[in-house]
From TrEMBL:
<feature type="site" description="Transition state stabilizer">
    <location>
        <position position="72"/>
    </location>
</feature>
<keyword id="KW-0963">Cytoplasm</keyword>
<keyword id="KW-0234">DNA repair</keyword>
<comment type="function">
    <text>Endonuclease that resolves Holliday junction intermediates in genetic recombination. Cleaves mobile four-strand junctions by introducing symmetrical nicks in paired strands. Promotes annealing of linear ssDNA with homologous dsDNA. Required for DNA repair, homologous recombination and chromosome segregation.</text>
</comment>
<keyword id="KW-0255">Endonuclease</keyword>
<keyword id="KW-0227">DNA damage</keyword>
<dbReference type="GO" id="GO:0006281">
    <property type="term" value="P:DNA repair"/>
</dbReference>
<dbReference type="GO" id="GO:0003676">
    <property type="term" value="F:nucleic acid binding"/>
</dbReference>
<feature type="binding site">
    <location>
        <position position="88"/>
    </location>
    <ligand>
        <name>Mg(2+)</name>
    </ligand>
</feature>
<protein>
    <recommendedName>
        <fullName>Holliday junction resolvase RecU</fullName>
        <ecNumber>3.1.21.10</ecNumber>
    </recommendedName>
</protein>
<dbReference type="InterPro" id="IPR004612">
    <property type="entry name" value="Resolv_RecU"/>
</dbReference>
<dbReference type="GO" id="GO:0000287">
    <property type="term" value="F:magnesium ion binding"/>
</dbReference>
<comment type="similarity">
    <text>Belongs to the RecU family.</text>
</comment>
<dbReference type="InterPro" id="IPR011335">
    <property type="entry name" value="Restrct_endonuc-II-like"/>
</dbReference>
<feature type="binding site">
    <location>
        <position position="56"/>
    </location>
    <ligand>
        <name>Mg(2+)</name>
    </ligand>
</feature>
<feature type="binding site">
    <location>
        <position position="54"/>
    </location>
    <ligand>
        <name>Mg(2+)</name>
    </ligand>
</feature>
<dbReference type="GO" id="GO:0007059">
    <property type="term" value="P:chromosome segregation"/>
</dbReference>
Length: 165
């Protein structure tokens, strides 16, 4: 994996981590970044992933609703389906079946628009369309645009079980 690919999405993850700190301070939710287990080879000085992580973030809102999501940042005008790993889709789908809020946060860098895509919508798109990517236009027509609010740039929890402030 080259350096450019390894850092893909790090800016967006950092922004979401900062938003999560605000949510925690305001007692809206406690959402934590899921650490990816890595091993470090002292001889070569290289690190590698030990196993696949589930998703980027998990937690719960102030009503006890479990929340799991992954962040995706793209510079182009579509989200390649290959950017969402099968194990991530499975984890999100399984948690959704258990009553959790499970979704993808997708940031299109060409215009800095963020969308919240429920995992069921993602799965439906894959079943109904013979495509390798989800176009920006589809997001614009079908997914929820994440706007600023609650003192954060991307207020992605505005509708999760009618959060109590």
């Amino acid at each position: 994996m080259n350096r450019k690919q390894a850092n893909r999405g790090m800016w967006f993850e950092t922004v979401i981590s900062n938003i999560n700190r605000v949510y925690k301070q305001k007692k809206i939710a406690i959402i934590d970044k899921v650490a990816t287990p890595i091993s470090y080879n002292t001889r070569t000085g290289k690190a590698r992933y030990q196993e696949k992580s589930t998703v980027d973030f998990v937690g719960c809102n102030n009503k006890g609703k479990y929340i799991a999501f992954d962040t995706k940042e793209v510079k182009i005008k579509n989200l390649p389906l290959k950017n969402v790993s099968d194990h991530q889709v499975k984890y999100l789908t399984d948690t959704k079946r258990m009553g959790a809020e499970a979704f993808l946060l997708v940031l299109f860098r060409f215009n800095d628009t963020c969308f919240k895509l429920d995992i069921d919508q993602f799965n439906d798109f894959k079943k109904q369309h013979d495509r390798k990517s989800i176009p920006y236009e589809w997001f614009n027509e079908n997914a929820e645009i994440v706007r600023s609010g609650n003192g954060v740039i991307f207020d992605y929890l505005t509708d999760v079980d009618h959060i109590v402030n």
